[in-house]
Design brief:
The chain is α+β, with helices and mostly antiparallel strands and 241 residues long. The chain has helices at 2-34, 107-120; strands spanning 44-53, 56-65, 69-76, 79-85, 90-94, 99-104, 137-146, 149-157, 163-169, 175-182, 187-199, 202-212, 215-227. The longest helix is centred in the N-terminal third of the chain and has 33 residues, at 2-34. The protein is globular and about 55 Å long.
Length: 241
């Protein structure tokens, strides 16, 4: 019996080693094809595009300054709706929601809103970059075909309970689908990345679409993008009216 126990232990250890090795190899190829060393030098991103949601199309401005400053601005028929996050605070100005003066977001509102925008735009501050030094678990869990494309599945388990699965194309090694499970909300967001193009040495998805239960929620099309633009911190400061 002891010999059987030792054999099982050895087999399990070997399996875990192979899975870790496979995850490392897949992630390495993914990061290389997406920009290699250039990915590690991204300090800021700014893009202009359009946001399609609920049958309507709006102009969109997205700005991110690493590590945690975000400005998400939507132009609705000449009126701007702005949501901003910094490390542990945020504010909103959105006449479409009856918010006619900038106001601070509560901690609960930040917890609800920030992850949705962050994971939608996670490609620009990716969880796979320097993942070994982070405090979450990353593992390879097999293959699956999504939208006719065979993919490697990389599972990421965050401390807050959020579970994210990256689907990485077995041919191109680009991640074209992220499945995000918010365990506290019991909601799964499917994020689809497409129309990749090289921009300043970075392989960027120009179309990012999110779905819930196969129903389209948002579709973002990037029209112009700048990597590492010079940014003034006033973009993130709450104006006083």
């Amino acid at each position: 019996m002891k010999k059987i126990g030792i054999i099982i232990f050895i087999l399990l250890s070997a399996l875990m080693f192979v899975q870790a090795q496979t995850a490392d190899e897949i992630i390495k190829k993914n990061l290389e094809i997406r920009g290699g060393d250039r990915l590690y030098s991204i300090g800021a991103v700014k893009f202009i595009g359009k946001l399609e949601t609920a049958g309507k199309t709006y102009k969109l401005l997205f700005i991110k300054k690493m590590p945690d400053k975000i400005r998400f601005q939507v132009d609705m028929n000449g009126t701007q709706g702005v949501t901003v996050f910094t490390s542990d605070s945020g504010w909103i100005f959105d006449p479409s929601q009856g918010i006619y003066e900038p106001q601070k977001l509560t901690k609960q509102e930040i917890l609800q809103k920030k992850p949705l925008i962050s994971y939608l735009m996670v490609f620009f501050d990716d969880l796979l970059i320097n993942y070994k030094s982070k405090s979450y678990k990353v593992s390879y869990i097999g293959k699956e075909t999504i939208n006719g494309k065979p993919a490697y599945k990389i599972l990421i388990m965050l401390k807050d309970g959020t579970v994210i699965t990256y689907y990485i194309d077995t041919k191109t090694f680009l991640d074209y689908h992220h499945k995000v499970l918010f365990t506290d909300l019991n909601v799964i967001f499917d994020i689809y990345l497409s129309k990749f193009a090289m921009v300043e040495g970075i392989n960027v998805p120009l179309v990012i679409e999110s779905k819930v239960k196969n129903q389209s929620m948002t579709k973002i099309t990037i029209e112009t993008i700048k990597i590492n633009p010079k940014l003034n911190d006033k973009y993130f400061e709450m104006p006083k009216f």
